[in-house]
Amino acid sequence: xxxxxxxxxxxxxxxxxxxxxxELGLFGDLDADALARYERxxxxxxxxAGSVIYRGGDAGDAILTVRAGAIKLLAPSADGQAxxxxxxxxxxxxxxxxxxxxxxxxxxxxxxxTQVCRIPVSTIRRLSxxxxxxSERVMHAWHHLVTQADDWIAHIVTGPxxxxxxxxxxxxxxxxxxxxxxxxxxxxxxxxxxxLSTTLETASRIVVEFRRNGLIKPAKGRLVTxxxxxxxxxxxx
Amino acid sequence: xxxxxxxxxxxxxxxxxxxxxxELGLFGDLDADALARYERxxxxxxxxAGSVIYRGGDAGDAILTVRAGAIKLLAPSADGQAxxxxxxxxxxxxxxxxxxxxxxxxxxxxxxxTQVCRIPVSTIRRLSxxxxxxSERVMHAWHHLVTQADDWIAHIVTGPxxxxxxxxxxxxxxxxxxxxxxxxxxxxxxxxxxxLSTTLETASRIVVEFRRNGLIKPAKGRLVTxxxxxxxxxxxx
DNA sequence: CGCCGAATTGATACTCATCAATCTTCGTGG
DNA sequence: CCACGAAGATTGATGAGTATCAATTCGGCG
Lengths: 237, 237
What we know:
Chain A is an alpha+beta fold. Chain A has seven helices and 13 strands. Chain A has helices at residues 32-38, 121-130, 132-156, 161-172, 189-196, 200-212, 228-236; strands at residues 8-10, 43-47, 52-54, 62-68, 71-76, 82-88, 93-94, 107-110, 114-120, 174-176, 181-185, 216-220, 223-226. The first copy, chain A, has a five-stranded antiparallel β-sheet with strand order 1-2-9-4-7. In chain A, strands 3-8-5-6 form a four-stranded antiparallel β-sheet. In chain A, strand 12 (216-220) and strand 13 form a beta hairpin. The longest helix of chain A is centred in the middle third of the chain and has 25 residues, at 132-156. The N and C termini of chain A lie far apart (51 Å). The A-B interface holds A 75-79, 83, 85-86, 96-97, 99-100, 102, 105-106, 135-136, 139-140, 142-143, 145-147, 149-150, 152-155, 157-159, 163, 167, 197, 235-237 and B 75-79, 83, 85-86, 96-97, 99-100, 102, 105-106, 135-136, 139-140, 142-143, 145-147, 149-150, 152-155, 157-159, 163, 167, 197, 235-237. The first copy, chain A, binds a DNA duplex through residues 160-162, 188-190, 198-202, 204-205, 207-208.
């Protein structure tokens, strides 16, 4: 039965053919016929900010692709704190461990309002039999995951705190025509700390400093416009 | 043509059926017949300490499994330093990106004398057609990669330097019956630094401290026996 | 308006990086 | 077999960068 709680809202079956991120997901090069045939096995679900999408250890029976919003994957670190090991953005896929019969390896939470599509593993398997391009895509998704994780190691959690904050902002920034440039949604300082391996106070001080120096400018709500060039300079160090 | 340089020595085709780590690798549950048929497409190669196994950007036409030794995967970090993003131990697989037609994403170097088996992608593909258990194993290998990368983020590069060193030692330790306990090969301080995101001086000071306090004891060459319980206490913090 | 969680700010102590100087180890050639 | 050289490892002194603890302040929201 589709979820129907305060934090998770079932939004019906998706129209994959109109999906804004289809070419990024698993069905990028599937023909319209096949799409239509399998659409009703797929659920579109919307999560409120902060809600839990799945927990580590849960039996994994479906894969998720992010349509809109952002998801953080949490892993307990050695000292008991929850560390964020990955950020998922629209087009990203998670829960692939379900494909190999493993339970989910992390806790997944919506960073803010987020829409995902839930694709049962059984659907993927059946599709793969007739459409080899799907298993191809699944393999690519694995590769993308590993690449993301490696980048995270080499860039997000390495170097001085100031550089790490800069890299995180560049990482989550997107073109924002309405503000004439690029914009990023500032995560809470706590989330920043959990991603960057710092304390929330340090994250706060650096955000304030960036604001003072004009590297970021408040736009609307938590949205800020960023000065990419300047941030990249800081990210270097 | 098989490599035949000072640092890489071709050792013939492997006898997969006798491989000490077969059950860990891609052919764990392949029958003897199939194994024998494909063995001669596989090369067994030995690398000297420090030699380069492949470079980032190289066309990936084969997958490697580690038979013995250890391999470090290097990625350039934002400040230009080479960071170690993963350690491969016997049974581990690397170069999977070749399966999706991507060039290798890292530079791979032997940490010390290391034996690998080189399996062409074409071989894997052909095998997968007749033996679904192989593609199953490939998928598992991907999953294992991601798990390793996530562990690295949550454990090896997080927390105080002392804890990180302790975790690294626990990570590379193996049972060593001849020393009555567990033993670990100490990497060079430079490699430690590149894994832990510290400086080599800090790594050195901590190793010395561990030795003074009996958490590790010199055994033979670079091998040290470890006091797992004590190291785990330190790793906590 | 008052409350609560998030964000900011300050003061202080501690960890770690940096720069520089030995000290060891080990392979090589005499 | 021994001396030598070079790379790796250790040690010390010092300062910059962060964590920590403790107040406030800010921003929504009932």
